Amino acid sequence: MQHKPDSHVTASDTSGAPSRYSTAQLAKFILPTLLGVLLFLTPISIDGRLTVLIAFVIDFVNDVIKPLMVPVTVAVAVVPSVLTVLVTFTSLKHHSNRFVQLLNPGVGWTIVRMVGATLMLMTYFQWGPEWIWHRNTGGVLLYDVGPVVLAIYSLSALLLPLLTDYGLMEFIGSLLSRVFVKLFGLPGRAAIDSLASWLSASAVGIILTTQQYRQGFYTSREACVISTNFSIVSIAYLYLLLSLIGMEHVFLPWYAAVAFTGVVCAIIVPKLPPLRGKSDTYNPVVGQQLVVDQHAGEGLFAMGLRRAVDRAAAAAPPLELLKRSVHVSLDVAISVYPTMMIIGCVGLALIEFTEFFHVLSLPLVPLLELLQLPEADKAAPALLAGIVDSIMPPLLGAGIESEVTRFVLAGVAVNQIIFFTEAAIVLIRAGIGLKLRDLVVIYALRVLISLPILSLLGHLILQ
């Protein structure tokens, strides 16, 4: 059958002979890809605020269903936890359905879910000790953190196949393969993953990386490196952090400093333990799915287009992609919320009601003074509190008079990536090979690398 001349694009195949793609094949790659790029990767200005469209959509959804967000957050923590007990301790645990298996995490995680759900109920109804339900402890998690991440998990997981399943990662990965291999020791497809992580939200980046590992496109080491070095908070959240310390007027130079510091960390941290020792093996369930297949005489663009079209053609039907996405978002949400309550309540209570972080941070004071950061005694506990949540350093450091110190605090809070009310929990639950001690070490490394760089840049920018 002879095709119409305008329904094909030509690239090179293995022998250098032309390889034709139909309009339908190209459309299956291009249309979802353009929509994914528009949603996740295109910076836009809304009301003078730099963001990406997915962040705007998430904010819009949050605003529309705002009256229901707190009760829904409680339900997401409590209902699956009760069902987990039912499944774990009955014959239902042997059911092969993948959604039922979400409720069979093992006895250890079952206990975690029940404790977390109990803390969520205590906060909502203000039962028990005040340190649990106080507005600055459990209240932060229930009213501030929980509702925001709920929309992030659900919407991002549902829409991420636009980036991952229709060829965009293959296309961009082919074009940037040499750069990413040389600079970061990562496959080229990690470029689009990293960009999506950087522009969207930390949870989005981790979910995306986890999906790619589970499908056999990353090794354990690659997934660990990407998720702990590129899964940064969103541009909108960056602006929020800077507004908390009253420094919106230096957003662009501060953002450039954060980006530069992040690249330096991404080069150095993977070369150090524990990331250096992570296994270069693929998910044993599916094995390696990406084959290095550049043909003789084939340019990077032609190779990328061929890989992208092939990937789009092999994409699962939309209903199956929807089921996978719902599974991923549920897996993250029903695990994160209870754990977030346990770690968050304890951590925030230590900050609010004790001198624990102040005492623990005393060794940091000489380092901050060495970096010529004024008010080091106030900055040190604020800096250390970032391990609980990235919003803590700006909140605790808002009263510091020195702009340089506040500049550095906000920058380190962003570049540390690891914080235990969200990112760390998702990473442990992801099953990509990261343990709690790994995350603590990575957090410390990123803070120690970021501090001198951001201090130098802060002094230069604000002098």
Describe what you observe in this structure.
This protein has 463 residues and is mainly α. It has a domain at 25-324. 67% of the residues lie in helices and 4% in strands. The strands form two sheets. Strands 1-2 form a two-stranded antiparallel ribbon. α19 (376-384) runs parallel beside α21 (403-415). The longest helix has 36 residues, at 318-353. The radius of gyration is 23 Å and the shape is globular. The N and C termini lie far apart (71 Å). Mean pLDDT is 84; it is low at 1-18.
Poorly predicted parts: 1-18
Proportion in helices: 55-70%
**Helix/sheet category:** mainly alpha
Rg calc: 23 Å
Beta content comes to under 5%
Please work out how many helical segments DSSP would assign.
23
Lay out the secondary structure.
Blueprint (H helix, E strand, L loop, with lengths): L7 E5 L5 E5 H18 L2 E4 L2 E4 H12 L1 H23 L9 H4 L5 H19 L4 H4 L4 H22 L1 H4 L3 H17 L5 H10 L2 H13 L5 H10 L5 H10 L6 H18 L31 H14 L4 H36 L2 H5 L3 H7 L5 H9 L7 H6 L5 H13 L7 H8 L5 H27 L1
Antiparallel strand pairs: 1-2, 3-4
Helix pairs in contact: 1-15, 2-7, 3-5, 3-7, 3-16, 5-16, 7-11, 7-16, 9-10, 9-15, 10-11, 11-12, 11-22, 14-21, 14-23, 16-22, 18-19, 19-21, 21-23
Sum up the structure in keywords:
463 residues, two-stranded antiparallel ribbon, mainly alpha, disordered N terminus, 23 helices
